[in-house]
């Protein structure tokens, strides 16, 4: 037997492995690219000014404002919805976050009426904007893992939309030193 067929076999195996690795890398690259198109705000940047914190969000290709943030220290993806009265958390996400289901209420959704449960979020964070003790709903039938960031949170912020960018601003209690009260 010659060593050529064994060498050819090894060459074919290496070629198959190289193609497999290339396909895996391409799949990962395009998956990450697709995620970035859906949610361009994976790590929202914050700007601190005198008496405010500001977060700017780019819109997705579909025109939605999505951003990764945290509820009670655990990472979630927010879909900002000024048409939603409350922050709405899908049932599966609420279970993962350990949220307690409170009083049942009937809500009107795009899919009709549903029964949701009141809950409170101890801490909601988007970039360096932090809100505490936020009213929320555990909402059935939402499908997916996105938390609707509704007006129970957004009413605590100033927000402006311009040219595909949404600017959220939280007023902080910090005052410039020249405006702070002096003790006498």
From TrEMBL:
GO terms for biological process: proteolysis. GO terms for molecular function: aspartic-type endopeptidase activity. Pfam families: gag-asp_proteas (PF13975). This is TIGR02281 family clan AA aspartic protease. The keyword Hydrolase applies. The lineage of its organism: Bacteria, Pseudomonadati, Pseudomonadota, Gammaproteobacteria, Pseudomonadales. Keywords: Hydrolase, Protease. Coiled coil: none annotated. Its EC number is 3.4.23.-. It is an enzyme of class 3 (hydrolase).
């Amino acid at each position: 037997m010659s060593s050529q067929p064994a060498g050819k076999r090894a060459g074919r195996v290496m070629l198959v492995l190289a193609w497999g690795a290339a396909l895996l890398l391409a799949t990962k690259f395009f998956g990450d690219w697709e995620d970035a198109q859906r949610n361009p705000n994976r790590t929202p940047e914050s700007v601190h000014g005198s008496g405010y914190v500001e977060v700017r969000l780019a819109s997705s290709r579909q025109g939605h404002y999505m951003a990764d943030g945290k509820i009670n220290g655990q990472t979630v993806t927010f879909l900002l919805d000024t048409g939603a009265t409350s922050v709405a958390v899908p049932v599966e996400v609420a279970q993962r976050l350990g949220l307690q289901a409170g009083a049942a209420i009937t809500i009107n959704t795009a899919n009709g009426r549903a029964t949701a449960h009141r809950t409170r979020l101890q801490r909601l964070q988007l970039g360096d904007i932090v809100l505490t003790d936020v009213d929320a709903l555990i909402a059935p039938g939402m499908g997916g893992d996105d938390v609707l960031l509704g007006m129970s949170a957004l009413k605590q912020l100033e927000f402006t939309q311009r040219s595909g960018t949404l600017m959220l601003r939280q007023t902080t209690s910090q005052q410039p030193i020249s405006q702070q009260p002096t003790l006498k």
